[in-house]
Amino acid sequence: MRGRLGLVAVAVLALIGALWWWLSARGESVPVAEASAEADAGPAANPAAGGRLEAMRARAAKAGDGGVGLTEALPPGVVATFGWGNGAGKLGRNRPEEANPEAPMSLSRDGQGNTWVLDQVNGRMVKLDKDGKVVAEMPLPLQTPQDMAVTKDGTAAVLDRLVDKAVALLGPDGKQVGELKLLGKGLEEGGQVTGVFADGDDVYVEREHGDLVKLGDSKGKPDPERPEVPGRPTRDGLSYISANISDPAAGRVAVTSIDRASRQHRFTREVPLGAPILALMLLDSDRSGVIYLAGVVQLPQPTGEPMPRMAVLCLDPLDGRPIGSAVLPANTDADETFRELTVLAEGGVLFLHRTEERAELMRADCR
């Protein structure tokens, strides 16, 4: 905190902080009243998105006090299937004896409905159309790419935090249009970076699962100020969101939303994933503002033995309460990856599920 505060100000801040955390621990939201009207502006401007959100709210209300619970996806549709290897219709997988095994590190979706898979083992990006057909394979200009995001204008921002310490910018045709350096104001080491994110045509990187630092835009123009934002931007343009595991054994995750315009705290809510949680795998939103939270949990089975599963919750953008869920198979191998799921603008998720024989790109949604 900058500057000096008097004793009275300190006491007031402490009281506010205590109240906030007490409410959060009870699983309640701490709303910002003036933000509510603004939050409805996003879906209202897009009737289809707003209608989808209202339908999810109605289903959640019908579920009553029992909540939405975790629901098996019915069934997740397979968009595309790949074998392992380096030829057509295959994705790379590396199993070295003295290093971390790797599978495709990341995937993203652009505004035209194309899916991009970061196949760094084969040094390429694989682009699929909305029907799951491979339409392009593009070489990567980085040595150790790990994550990617697609900007509004269709530029792929590909992150190398370890060797090149840069974000390469690739146009829709795969040609490099620019590069943004990582190190500078707000980032002293490449290892601090935990992901790359797009907000319109602006490119951000996340610092240690917390604030995001703006590097520049999709044309490769760096931002000399490198401003920071308090979380991942939601696609309705209204909020910044963040999450952390608050109780691993109980499977509880604290999700926080900050109003973008005022930078005021909108809510912090503890949401249950329904089983002990091993890792958080997704925090994102669709264009209606619905927040998607996913994690690998140890879900009890009829046999009594817990099984790792991918639990997905859809959360209301106004207060963070669960309004839908889905359960998917989990990747249980030791392959290193950065982003196994991506949220679709129209709603739902894509998930790259791996087995020993193949990789399946699945589509599912909360219900």
How would you describe this structure to a colleague?
Helices cover 13% and strands 41% of the residues. By secondary structure, it is mostly beta strands. A hairpin with a 3-residue loop joins strand 24 and strand 25 (358-364). It starts with 6 loop residues before the first helix and ends with a strand.
List strands and helices in order, with pairings:
Elements: H1 7-25, H2 33-39, H3 41-45, H4 47-63, E1 77-84, E2 90-91, E3 106-109, E4 115-119, E5 124-128, E6 134-139, E7 147-150, E8 156-160, E9 166-170, E10 176-181, E11 193-199, E12 202-207, E13 212-217, E14 228-229, E15 232-233, E16 239-247, E17 252-259, E18 265-272, E19 277-285, E20 291-299, E21 307-315, E22 322-329, E23 341-343, E24 349-354, E25 358-364
Parallel strand pairs: 1-2
Antiparallel strand pairs: 1-25, 3-4, 4-5, 5-6, 7-8, 8-9, 9-10, 11-12, 12-13, 13-14, 15-16, 16-17, 17-18, 19-20, 20-21, 21-22, 23-24, 24-25
Q: What portion of the residues fall into strands of 2 or more residues?
A: 35-45%
Dominant shape = globular
- Based on the structure, what is the oligomeric state of the protein chains? single chain
> Unreliable runs, pLDDT <50, ≥5 residues?
1-45
- Portion of residues in helices? 10-25%
Question: Element order, helices and strands?
Answer: HHHHEEEEEEEEEEEEEEEEEEEEEEEEE
The value of Rg in angstroms is 21 Å
What is the number of helical segments per DSSP (H or I, 4+ residues)?
4
Distance between the termini: 43 Å
Alpha-beta content class: mainly beta
Mean pLDDT: 86
Largest sheet: 5 strands, mixed
The side-by-side strand order for the widest beta sheet comes to 2-1-25-24-23
| Number of beta strands | 25
